[in-house]
Fold these 2 entries.
Entry 1:
Amino acid sequence: MSNQELSDGGACCSPLAREPLTEDWAGDLARMFKALGDPVRLRLLSLIASHAGGEACVCDISESFDLSQPTISHHLKVLRAAGLLDCERRGTWVYYWVIPSALQQLSAVLLTESGPVVPSETCTSTEVPA
Amino acid sequence: MSNQELSDGGACCSPLAREPLTEDWAGDLARMFKALGDPVRLRLLSLIASHAGGEACVCDISESFDLSQPTISHHLKVLRAAGLLDCERRGTWVYYWVIPSALQQLSAVLLTESGPVVPSETCTSTEVPA
DNA sequence: GCCCTGATTCGACATCTGTCAATATCGACG
DNA sequence: CGTCGATATTGACAGATGTCGAATCAGGGC
């Protein structure tokens, strides 16, 4: 995977709204978004991100779900394959943590002309320059 | 399944990293992320967002894909059901446009402690799993 | 060495998803 | 009114996905 598109040369807006995504990049982003497209995985990510120290072991977070441990492990694997998590074994336990740059990249892609704030509620006007 | 309850109301950071997502919210967000978890839909969204005027008719964007017209229509329906797009019929054509607040919400959720701030605890390695 | 605990992998299953061809709907134009 | 072009809906189908139980792997303690 190539996550180098973060620093787009001279791009003032999000690439999503600036120009059509290339197929390659769309596929790359879609894999990450698809990993987030499951409530269990979203909660897993949130649990890990909000855990003390920014990391958590499986035994700790699996208690928050009604799912079997293999299922939790499967979801963690999906998140890791998508590049959103990383993990490390320490003795008996395996600790997971979030990869901040991955989330940041996704967040940046979604930042369109709307920007971080929406001052005007009447969005009917199309203010996008041609 | 007793998660730690809300600490306090004033959320200064992203809720994803502040505290575990509630099941309701995770389900809501997951529906939107799942809609983005397909390269075709991502490109559709990008094509519409980057189109002149911020909106595009189906006949225009469908040319960029090798997919059948019903498939394009299906993906547009998914994006609309997720609250990411809205559409309007004008004569023969149907125009679609992006709902900025939806993308903004998703972008905000992903803005964790990473953001503009450089994390100091887990900066030992930035390599992603292969 | 042997077992015990934590975590992953495997195999199987039902369900969901993406795709197409065929058909239907909706509006414009003779 | 009939037809035509643009979208949407339906039905069907292969492939992906989420889930579990069982088996397996990895360390620690006896």
Entry 2:
Amino acid sequence: MISVVWFRGHDLRLTDNEALCAGAELGPVIPLYVHVPADDGAWPLGGAAAWWLQQSLGDLDVQLRTRGSRLILRTAEHTVDALLAVVRETGAQAVFSHRRSEPAATAVEATVARMLTDHGVQFVLSDAHTLVPMGALRTGAGTPYRVFTPFWRSLLARGEPDEPVAEPQLPPVAQWPTSQPLAELALQPKVDWAIGLRERWQPGEEGATQALRSFCAAVGDYEEQRNRPDLEGTSSLSPHLRFGELSARQAWHAGRGAAGSRAEPWLRQLAWRDFGHHLLHAYPHTAEQPLRPEFAAFPWRHDRMALRRWQRGQTGYPLVDAGMRQLWHTGWMHNRVRMVVASFLVKDLMLPWQEGARWFWDTLVDADLANNTLGWQWAAGCGADAAPYFRVFNPTTQSVKFDPQAEYIRRWVPSLSALPVREAHRPWKAIEECVGYPEPMVDHAEARRTALAAYNGMRT
DNA sequence: TGAAATGTTGGGGCG
DNA sequence: ACGCCCCAACATTTC
């Protein structure tokens, strides 16, 4: 029996691929990726993520070809059109894929399920993108968790996540349907701005496996180093996990195997990733709207120039600017710094968190709707496990604390590199010496007071 | 996975 | 020797 394995861009791997296993068990499989320019109502892929997707799809095709298979690419107005066409052309009787958390993707799943069933084709979605199937963890009251720590305890109490499944043997396919050249998907940027990305990353399952292996050698040091943007203390696995070149449970078991209970601080971060998907699945409106409805009345400012200075790393606060420039250059930012720049946007500048989410969406190689939403709503104080409204990061204190030698600042803001440590954190004391570095765009102490007053006003 | 303001403690310099 | 003060270090509270 022939089946289609529908790759959806969050599952671009051959190991621990439940859909691929399910198809291969029944007979020949047609691996298919459907490109939908308008994206069926989803957020259109951001530039950095589109770059990554192109590399990863190319790599998946190469890997499949070494196994006598290949990746079929189709462009369609709606996903279901391409699925039905390939099913018809190949005589496939089943379609296997993996569930997603995003509302638009969930809607597509419902349409696909209905149409395939109407045509007598079996459709099976595996729930393997997260450690725990979405919706499986509930509070005592039967509601989804909205606070992380109880969610984490519940995840641990459930026992270790399922073991990864091995890559299957792929039975030969007699006749392949037509495929489009990858270049026709137009995922590549027209102007080549991806140089920094190419230097930093190796998209694809092989790159993911290597990154996991090298991180696992140091996972025991994670707790001590994870907040230091000047060091390589984090796993840098986020884009690989985002595109499913590596599954969360592969990551979990690799970390566990390498360090046992010493791996737990990092496993906890994997659980944050799960938390994001579970939340978006349970509260599908939160990618656009605050989870806590009272925040709809918050007096956000609208200031295009201020937004632009933040985006380009021209705020005058070294850690904020270093982070924004790292993001622009590499498509990635250290998580500690993400919290600092997010706090600066929503509290110091009082610009809407959705603007920050949109910018991250377009520039991060690991841009993921569920985790981006969770992070921004958390920072703004309007989401799950929200930082209390009064929690305002001081960008100077944060850089003194977490970039003690100002090495991260010097790496990403070269105009500050000649300053001694103390002045690199506070260049406004020595501003005449740093050519081209701006004055602080706001006074933090004053901005903090204004933000607190605004939050107080909203609460009454 | 805050920071600032305020309160407390204790070592040490000094008359 | 003693009391006084300064202040760093730490703890608590407040936003």
